[in-house]
Amino acid sequence: MTSATVFTCVFIALYVAHQVGDNWIQTRAQACGKGAPGWRGRILCGRHVATLTLAKALVIGLVTAVLALPLNVAAVACALAVDAVSHYWADRRAPLLALAERLGKGEFARLGDGAAAPAGTGAYALDQSWHVGWLLVTALIACLGAGS
Questions:
Q1: What pTM value is reported for the model?
Q2: How many whole angstroms separate alpha carbon 22 and alpha carbon 55?
């Protein structure tokens, strides 16, 4: 199995798990409160990231078992840790919005009415593109030592 094939399988597994975990598994309380200041927001965000990371681990495990992918468990664990940290950072909201402001994307981040259509806002689009970018990094890390 080529490294490109393994990478493609891992990326697809991560992307599918991300979509399910971020949109179906995440609770309303987590979605609405994970960006709140203080410990309440931190805990809600941590719970969301924990269930999302578990979903990603389960999907990668399933795909690895079914397709006999030659993944290194330590590399996958490291990759999922990197992904979890990047996801938590962005989902606390203020850091990602501050980055958007610094990069000239603040106006885009403020597009849409978060109360009326939270998934149809500029902030949501930036959030999701941030996560997908990190899924690429995560897949690359997970493939380190594949076949070893």
A1: 0.93
A2: 10
